[in-house]
Each structure stands twice: as C-alpha cells, then as structure tokens.
Amino acid sequence: MQMDSVCVHGGVCLQGKVRIQGSKNASLPILAATLLTKGENVVYNCPKITDVFQMKQLLRSIGCKIRERCDCVSVNADQIRSGKLPAEAVQGMRSSVCMLGALLARCGEVTMEYPGGCVIGARPIDLHLKALEKMGAIFHIENGMIHGIVPEGFCGAEVCFPKVSVGATENVILAAVLAKGRTRIIHAAKEPEVVALCEYLVKCGADIKGIGSDCLIINGAGQLCGCCMKIPADRIVAGTYLFAVLAAGGNAWLEEAPCNEMQAVLQVAERMGALCQESPMGLYVQAPEELQPIACLRTGEYPDFPTDLQSAVTVAALRAKGETVIEETIFENRFHIVEPLKTMGADIYVLDERRILIKGGKLLRGRNVEAKELRGGAAMILAGLMTNDVTCISGCKYILRGYENIGKDLRELGARVVSV
Ligand code: UD1
Predict the structure, then answer these.
(1) Element (H, E) at 406
(2) How many Cβ atoms are within 10 Å of 53's Cβ, its own excluded?
(3) How far is CA 409 from the centre of its chain?
(4) Most buried among 25, 53, 319, 367, using CB within 10 Å?
(5) Tens digit of pLDDT per residue, the chain (420 long)?
(6) Which among 260, 164, 272 is positioned nearest to 216, based on CA atoms?
(7) How far apart are the C-alpha atoms of 260 and 409, rounded to whole Å?
(8) CB neighbours (10 Å) of residue 411?
(9) CB-ligand 1 contact for 165 (6 Å cutoff)
C-alpha cells in the first residue's frame, strides 16, 4: 500500500472480520537467520511491510538469492560475501541489529551503521556487543559505524543478561547455533518471537534446549540446512485491532489472532469490560456499552502486557469514564502520542518519564496530526475512529513499517479510512 497520509471519518462502530497478518518481529530475525543455512529456505506468511522489504535488501546486498511469490519468501544464502551493509536499510529498522550475530557467525566479519528504529528511547546495544564479545567477537565503533570480527569463530559461552532484551537474546542465539561448544543464556527473553526463531533454527538442525524459558542451552552444530517455516500471526497487530474495537465500539472476528500469546492483553480488555472469545482459529471481541478504566496498567516483558500495545490501549482508555494510569517499564520515551491526543481534546497528562494519566470519557475532535513512530502512528488512527468528524494522520511511512494495510483492514471492519 502506498500512503503518506490517511483520513479517518470517525463515529462508526466496527463490525466484521479481518485476517491477522504474519508477525513482523518473528519474520525479521528468521530472515536474518537464513544466512546461517545451506540450501533453500522457504518462509511463508511473511508480512508485506517496509521492515521486511528492508531486511530483504540487506540480504540481497550481501549476495543472497531471494525469490518471492505472494506471501512466500525463498532465501538461498549459499554464495554470500561480507561487506558494508546498506545504510538506509540498517538505519531504517531496529531489527537490522540481528545482522551482527548472523553475519559474524557466517562470515566472521560485519560492518554496519548503528541500527535505527523507532524513536521510543535510547535503545543502546551494549548488551548485544558484550554478549557477542564474550563469545569471541571484537568490535570497533567509530562515528556511528560498527566494525566487528570474530577471528577464531564464535565459541560457546555462559551469557547472563543483567536485563531482559529480545534483540540481544536473538543475537546470541544466532551466534551460538554454529559456535564451537555450548552456550547457556541466562535471563533470556521469552517473547513468542524468540520462540519462533528457535523453532525455525531447530528445524534447520540446531540444538536448542529450554525454548520458551528464560534459560536457553545451545550446542553448536556443524552445519544448518534451509527449511520451510510459516511465520506465526502478529500478536501486536491483533492487539491493535482489538483495541480499535474497544475505542470505536462494536465487535470483530480477528481471524488467526494468536490468543495463547495474548493472555495479558485479553485480561486487560476484559477488565475494561470487553467480551473476548478465544478459539484456535482466532479471537472474537465485543466492546461493552461503557468501557471501564483500569486503575493501573504496566507494560512488561512477555508474558506481561507488551510495550508495543501501550499506545493502542492508551487510546482505548480515553473512552473509559474515569482515570487510568499507564506505566511503561521497557522504554523511557514512549509517550509521543500524548501531545497530538491533547490537540484532539483528550484529557491526558505525562506524570513522569514512565507514567501517564488518562482522564477518559471526553469526546475527541478530529484534527490534523502526525505519526512519529510505528505503534504510536497506528494508535492515532484508532483515535480518529473515536471522533465524530475527520482526523488526518500524516507520516504513515512509519505505520507501513509494521502494518501491511491498516486502512484496508479497518475498512473490512466497517471503518471509514481513506489513503490520501
Ligand atoms: C523491544 C520489546 C519487544 C518489542 C520491540 C519493539 C520487550 C522486552 N522488548 O524489543 O517486545 O517488540 O521492543 O518495540 O518488551 N537494552 C539495553 N541494552 C541493550 C539492549 C536493550 O539497555 O543492548 C534495554 C532497552 O533500552 C530496553 C530494554 O533493554 O529498555 C529492552 O530492550 P530490547 O528487548 O532489547 O528491545 P527490543 O529488542 O527492541
């Protein structure tokens, strides 16, 4: 979808069904992991989003052969070369950081800019670098450029993270599957996307124990072979549409929504008064007549409430009469939507770097607002659904990083959203 701005004509209750796309945060590290394999990889249900496009650019730039048909991406990494990665793709997304572990493991060398991504906090990579150094890598960082080598190849090590990091856990996994010896990761991230990466690598021949727990044990394999993998549905996209229903009212069938990965989200929706019916085929959600505020909601590492849905739940909470406090425990700068929501008439206040107060129940007014980052941008579309007039959201390139076609999906639920 090409869109720079969308206009949302609010005031319509949602109703209908929509299929949930494949997961962004699962597909990106899996595509990076194809570098570690010999032969053909076939990755199904890959979302058609900018970040996946950029990841394919990165892989092509080092010689991977990529073929695409519908939602299926085939990658053959038999003949690759190391070299500086293209700056635009590296700086356009945070997940380019996975190339550190993957390329060092495959080629023994990596040169890339400091990875980019959304402006939601400092987003350091010290945990990634320290862990990979423990496994034998040497990094030189100058003027925002990272150069890494691993002269003797990666060696298994004991990596104990002082703090849970999804990206750093994934990098160590990528480094460890072909390393000499055994790696133990303590305080590993347990996010479903980390599990999906491990399951893909196991299919390729990797030896990983403790998948889904916070302690992973990986015995390096001599060689990995390409395989077929279906990318699981995106729990964040499903959660965004769930909160769209709560924000606008109505009901929806979210086909393929991964309910078992969304328990904390469903609990919050139910506390707000929603009816959620789970099934292996998806999720039915129905908004109540009156939403309830939540005294205190904290984001946290999986299985807690995901930071990536903090903006969407904030918008839904604006419809609940009463006060909701939201605490963001993962990132220190993730309240960009507060100011644009205020211009729409919302009673919402930043209490400190980590907490906001929402006084819900006021009708929002349509305004021209700007998306500044991916999840916050999607949440502004949800805010548009709650007005009785027109909201235009510019800066939609950020939203396209993670949503295949949010306008079309919401239109399938009856929303009036047009690209301009
Ligand atoms: C995080 C989220 C992930 C989400 C993604 C995109 C968690 C645990 N992770 O993953 O679910 O999909 O953002 O929004 O919710 N940190 C360091 N040093 C490092 C790496 C991280 O201090 O080297 C800190 C970060 O600043 C942050 C925390 O650790 O406070 C978690 O970051 P991390 O999990 O690495 O972020 P992502 O992998 O981007």
Answers:
(1) helix 406-412
(2) 14
(3) 18
(4) 25
(5) 456 899 999 999 999 999 999 999 999 999 999 999 999 999 999 999 999 999 999 999 999 999 999 889 999 999 998 778 999 889 888 889 999 999 999 999 999 998 875 555 567 899 999 999 999 999 999 888 999 999 999 999 999 999 999 999 999 999 999 999 999 999 999 999 999 999 999 999 999 999 999 999 999 998 999 999 999 999 999 999 999 999 999 999 999 999 999 999 999 999 999 999 999 999 999 999 999 999 999 999 999 999 999 999 999 999 999 999 999 999 987 899 999 999 999 999 999 989 999 999 999 999 999 999 999 999 999 999 999 999 999 999 999 999 999 999 999 999 999 988
(6) 164
(7) 22
(8) 15
(9) yes
Of 230, 247, 276, which residue is a domain's last? Answer: 230
Q: How many angstroms does the Cα of residue 88 sit away from the middle of ligand 1?
A: 21
Indicate whether residue 131 lines ligand 1 (CB < 6 A): no
Which atom from ligand 1 is nearest to the alpha carbon of 374? Answer: 14
Q: Is any ligand 1 atom within 6 A of the Cβ of residue 127? A: yes
* One domain for residues 58 and 195: yes
User: How many domains are contained in the chain?
Assistant: 2
Residue range(s) defining the domain that contains residue 201: 24-230
Ligand 1 and 126: CB distance under 6 A:
yes
Q: Active-site positions?
A: 118
- Indicate which CATH number applies to the domain containing 148: 3.65.10.10
Does residue 301 line the site of ligand 1, with CB under 6 A? yes
Protein residue with least CA distance to atom 26, ligand 1: 123
Cis amide leading into 303 (omega within 30): yes
Q: Are residues 360 and 382 in the same domain?
A: yes
How many A from CA of 262 to the centre of ligand 1?
19
Let me know whether 111 and 205 are in one domain: yes
Q: 397: closest CA among 53, 71, 61?
A: 53
Pocket test for ligand 1, best of 24, 123, 308 (most atoms within 8 A of CB): 123
> Atom of ligand 1 at shortest distance to CA of 126?
23
**Co-location of 36 and 126 in the same domain:** yes
Give yes or no: residues 296 and 334 share one domain.
yes
Q: For residue 109, what are the β-bridge partners?
A: 149
pTM: 0.97
245 and 108 assigned to the same domain: no
Q: Are residues 338 and 399 in the same domain?
A: yes
Q: Do 114 and 237 fall into the same domain? A: no
Give me ligand 1 centre to Cα 75, in Å: 27
Q: Which candidate, 260, 178, 192, places its Cα nearest to that of 231?
A: 192
Best mutation site among 94, 127, 166 for ligand 1, i.e. most ligand atoms within 8 A of its Cβ? Answer: 166
